[in-house]
Design brief:
Blueprint: H1 2-24, H2 26-32, H3 40-64, H4 68-95, H5 105-129
Helix pairs in contact: 1-2, 1-3, 1-4, 1-5, 3-4, 4-5
Length: 193
């Protein structure tokens, strides 16, 4: 867990630094990437998207340090987002015909290293949470047996005695029309209520 926390703290500090740089010096940060900010809207976009997004991700990483389950989610998010940025950069190089191969190479190497460190930390967390093998001692069964003798093998005919159903003394007979002259055993109560 220490290594995972270390990776999350380092990434959060780097992201906060970039976020503040995009907020305070948007023109210089855009120029590092080869962009030129011509309008106030583009400066605002640079501050909101590049500065705000990285600040939000950094705050999520710092929040996730407190609980191991959240640390796993933060590390997975870090691996996925960094690999997505690497894939985007490589896809851009392929679409541009490799003209900008040396462009922003340091950023590409940083993202690959960050994704690898986060993946190693995530793997170490999963290894630490894996259940250890139980010692070879006698373990009580989850339920207790009623009889303390070992179970016997099943043989044909073993088991409880078959259930027998006694015939009732009086079985109901089906109703037949035309047999009204037979007296009723319990005449209905004809008194008014």
């Amino acid at each position: 867990m220490r290594f995972a926390r270390f990776v999350l703290v380092v990434q959060a500090v780097i992201m906060i630094g970039f976020s503040l740089a995009y907020w305070v010096r948007p023109y210089e940060m855009a120029n590092l990437s080869g962009m030129l900010l011509m309008e106030t809207a583009s400066v605002s976009h640079m501050r909101v998207y590049y500065g705000g997004m990285q600040l939000g991700l950094a705050l999520f990483l710092l929040w996730a340090i407190r609980v191991p389950g959240h640390a796993r989610a933060a590390l997975a998010m870090l691996v996925i987002s960094m690999l997505a940025l690497v894939a985007g950069r490589l896809g851009s190089l392929w679409l541009d015909g490799g003209e900008l191969l040396g462009f922003d190479l340091v950023s590409l190497i940083y993202r690959v290293c960050a994704a690898l460190l986060a993946a190693v930390a995530l793997w170490m967390l999963r290894e630490a949470d894996a259940p250890e093998a139980a010692p070879a001692e006698r373990v009580e069964p989850p339920t207790r047996r009623l009889v303390d003798e070992p179970p016997q093998p099943f043989r044909l005919g073993d088991g409880p005695a078959p259930v027998t159903v006694d015939e009732p003394a009086f079985a109901p007979q089906p109703f037949r029309r035309g047999e009204a002259d037979e007296p009723l055993s319990n005449p209905p109560d004809s008194s008014p209520r």
